[in-house]
Specification:
It is a single chain. By secondary structure, this protein is an alpha/beta fold. About 50% of the residues lie in helices and about 5% in strands. It contains 10 helices and 6 strands; from the N terminus they run H-H-H-E-H-E-H-E-H-E-H-H-H-E-E-H. The strands form 2 sheets. Strands 2-1-3-4 form a 4-stranded parallel sheet, with helices on both faces. A two-stranded antiparallel sheet has the order 5-6. Strand 1, helix 4 and strand 2 form a beta-alpha-beta unit. The radius of gyration is 22 Å and the shape is globular. The termini are far apart.
């Protein structure tokens, strides 16, 4: 029954998005045909938007940090690939910020975009799917979004980024529960624009979420760090939803996010039997893990790009 209800909730949201596309198209055609004050104002605004920049831009891959003219010129220069990074706010037990996934996305999103070249990162999707339920739970982690709302949000983001001039739109999620919504949004947009003359690719890159499949084997098998966690598990001998690879990248981004100083003071600077030798040691490990995750993700995107039709 719950699956049926969620399907009913999702269908109107996608229908609304599709209707909005059709309405916008009809409106544009009507405006062009009738002209008038609205057309003149639009033309003036367009002319202003097309004026050359008079000040130098900044060096950033974050879309929201750009001015509109800076972004316009970057699109013209071939910055037509964008990353939609999804995270969440969730219970990570006693040592880690509930913002864990978003902290990792901020670090890795920039690394991936710069390594790929001519790639920007959309504003982070900082909430993940989950259900509130009827009960009050003081101190509960969150907030979260219903699956229907979450999927519609990702759909609308991808669709709007398409309208901004991006031609490759990649969904990358740092939380396992995000995969369904990202895959659904990417698949739905692919179907909607399958016959469009303006070719746009929408892709969920599942390989980005690689804590258990790539990072854990790397730490244990290649670096020979005997962390007390079974490969594939989300908690180890410490009994926490926490592991060394995640601690390391979070320490690299922001030591306070893993409460490093507080844990040292309390004699708890360790996880799953591995003591943090120093902050420098942990951050050096974080760099290695980050490079591994970035390389794994870019390799997956490169393989996907090889399947795309070549420009005529």
């Amino acid at each position: 029954m719950r699956t049926t209800v969620m399907a009913w909730l999702t269908m109107p949201l996608f229908a609304a998005s599709a209707m909005a596309i059709a309405t916008a198209s009809a409106s544009a055609q009507t405006t062009g045909a009738t002209g008038g004050a609205g057309s003149a104002a639009q033309a003036a605004r367009q002319a202003a938007a097309n004026k050359p920049r008079t000040i130098e831009g900044i060096n950033t891959v974050w879309l929201e940090e750009l001015t509109q003219p800076e972004f316009r010129d970057m699109i013209k220069d071939g910055y037509t690939t964008v990353l939609i990074m999804t995270g969440g706010v969730e219970n990570n037990d006693g040592n880690l910020s509930m913002n864990k996934h978003n902290i990792n996305n901020k670090l890795l999103g920039e690394m991936i975009a710069r390594k790929m070249g001519k790639t920007l990162v959309a504003p982070l999707v900082t909430l993940e799917p989950g259900n509130a339920g009827p009960n009050i739970q003081p101190g509960r982690a969150g907030p979260m979004l219903s699956q229907a709302t979450y999927t519609a949000l990702l759909y609308d983001m991808g669709n709007y980024l398409r309208s901004m001039g991006f031609t490759e739109i990649y969904y990358l999620g740092d939380s396992g529960g995000n995969a369904r919504g990202m895959q659904t949004a990417a698949d739905s947009l692919t179907k909607v624009y399958a016959d469009s003359p303006n070719k746009v690719s929408f892709k969920h890159v599942a390989e980005y979420y690689n804590h258990t499949s790539v990072v854990q084997p790397y730490l244990q098998n290649e670096l020979k760090i005997p962390e007390g966690i079974k490969i594939g598990a989300s908690s180890g001998t410490s009994g926490l939803h926490e592991e060394l690879g995640i601690d390391a990248t979070m320490a690299l981004a922001d030591p306070q996010s893993i409460r490093f100083a507080q844990r040292v003071k309390a004699g708890q600077a360790e996880i799953n039997g591995i003591k943090f030798e120093s902050l420098t040691w942990l951050q050096d490990l974080g760099r290695k893990v980050a490079v591994l995750r970035v390389t794994t993700t870019i390799n997956a995107i490169t393989a996907y790009r090889a399947t795309l039709p070549k420009p005529q």
